[in-house]
Amino acid sequence: MTEQQIIEGIRQGDESAFRELVDQYQQMVVNVCNRFVHNRDDALDLSQDVFIKAYHSIDRFRGTSRISTWLYRIAVNHSLNFIRDKKRRNIFSSLDVLFDHSGSSPVERAADNGEEAQEQMERKENNNRVYQALESLPKKQRVALTLNKLEDLPYKQVAEIMDISVSETGVLINRAKKKLQKKLAENIKKA
Amino acid sequence: MKCKEIHTRLIDYMDGELSRDEQERVQKHLQGCPDCREMYQEMAASWNQAREDRISYQPFYYTRLQAKMERQAERYSQHALRRARTFRMLLQPALFFVVLGLGIFIGIQLGKGLGNTSTVAAQTQSPDYIEAYAEDQYWNGLKLEPIEQEYFAVDSAAVSDPSQKTNRYE
Q1: Does A126 reach chain B within 8 Å, measured CB to CB?
Q2: What is the C-alpha separation between A180 and A145, in angstroms, rounded?
Q3: Distance (Å, whole) CA A153 – CA B78
Q4: How far apart, in whole angstroms, are the C-alpha atoms of residue A57 and residue A19?
Q5: Where does chain A show beta strands of DSSP type E?
Q6: Do A182 and B8 touch (CB under 8 A)?
Q7: pLDDT given at position B161
Q8: Where on the phi/psi map is residue A33: left (φ > 0), alpha (ψ -120 to 50), or beta?
Q9: A180 has a chain B CB within 8 A of its CB
Q10: Which residues of A touch B53 (CB under 8 A)?
C-alpha cells in the first residue's frame, strides 16, 4: 500500500489501511516517544494515543508532508505534553505529601519506603547520562537534537516536524550539541 | 588543542562530523591525554547506549491499540450520556425560571397599559381626534358668563310665573 492509499483507506473507514499504518510506523512512533519519556510502558501507551489521534484527525492531514513527518510531529507534541503534565502531577503529589497529616509522619513514611527509595536511586544512577543531559536542555534544542542525533533524521525533516526553517534547525542543533557535551562532561567528571 | 576544547567536540568526533583536520587533531590529543581519553570512552559508551536504546517491534500492538480505541469509544458514549442527563437536570429548572421571568415581564407590561402600537392609542393621538375632543370639552364644560346666567335665570322664572313675563326686547 502506498502512503496515499493508506490515507484514502483510513478516510473511507478501511480498517486494513489503519492496520497497515500502525504496522509500518509502530516502531518509529514508539521509539520517538521513548526518546522523550525514557520509560518503555509510558512510551507504548503514548504511542497508542498518537495513532488514535492520527486516526481521528486524518481529515486534517493535507498530504503536503510525508506520513512519517506528520506522525513524528504528533508523537513529539504528545510526549512533551505528557512530560509537562507529569511534572505538574509530581508537584501536586509532593504538596499532598507535605499537607497530609494523617497516619505516619513524612520521616516515618520515608523510612517505610526505604527500599523503594533505594531502588529508585539505583534506577536513576543506571539511567543513561545522555538522557539526563538532554533533559537539562531547552525544549526546542532538545527536540531538534533528539530527532537529528538519536533518530538520525536529516535537518530538512527536523525542520518540517518542528515547523521552523532549516537554518534555524541548524542553529538549534549546534547550540544543543555544545550544551549537551558540556553537561555530559560535567556528569562524567562528577561520577 | 586544550582539553576543554576537546570536550566540546567529542560527539561530533564520534559521529565523524568534524573536518578532516579537526578530526585528526582531536585524535592526536586523545592519544596523548589519558584524562580526555577516559572522558571520551565514557561519553562514547553513554552516547552509543542512548542511540541503541530502541524498543523492538511489538507483535500484539495493533490488538492492544484496538482494545484501547474500543474502551475510549465506550467511555466517550458513557460520558455523552452523562452529559445529556446533566443537561436535562439543568434544563428543567432553567426552563422554569425562564417561564417565570416571562410571566413577570408580561405582567409588568400589562400593568403599564397598552403601548403606542395599539390602534386605540394611535386614534387618540391623531390631530383630528384631539381637535374633536377639545371642541367637545369646550362645549360641554363651558361656563356661563354672568350676563348669560342672568338671562337664563329670567327665562326660567317666566316659565314658573307667566305674569312676570316681560319682553326683553322692549
Answers
A1: no
A2: 9
A3: 42
A4: 16
A5: none
A6: yes
A7: 65
A8: alpha
A9: yes
A10: 34, 128
Q: Does residue B30 contact residue B36 with C-beta atoms inside 8 Å?
A: yes
Asked whether B72 and A52 are in contact (CB, 8 A), the reply is: yes
Query: Is pLDDT of B70 > 80?
Result: yes
All structural domains of chain A: 1-98 (1.10.1740.10), 128-191 (1.10.10.10)
Find out whether A30 and A125 touch, Cβ atoms under 8 Å: no
DSSP state of A122: H
Residue with cell string 536542555: A137
The residue type found at B58 is: Q
Residue B120 Cα distances to B68, B114, B115, B126, B127, angstroms: 72, 9, 10, 10, 14
Separation of alpha carbons A188 and A128, rounded Å: 11
Residues in chain A: 191
CA distance A176 to chain B (A): 11
Q: Cβ separation of A52 and B69 shorter than 8 Å?
A: yes
Residue listed under C-alpha cell 506520513: A67
- Give residue limits of the domains in chain B: 3-52, 62-94, 123-164
Taking contacts as CB-CB distances below 8 angstroms, the residues of chain A near B36 are none
Q: Does B69 touch chain A (CB under 8 A)?
A: yes
Query: Do A23 and B62 count as a contact with CB atoms less than 8 A apart?
Result: yes
| Chain B touched by A39 (CB under 8 Å) | no
Mean pLDDT by 10 residues, chain A (191 residues): 89 92 95 93 95 92 89 95 89 71 54 59 58 91 94 94 95 92 85 74
Report chain B's terminal Cα–Cα distance, integer Å.
152
Determine which helix (DSSP H) or strand (DSSP E) holds A49, and give its type and residue range.
helix A40-56
Neighbours of A132 (CB within 10 A): 15
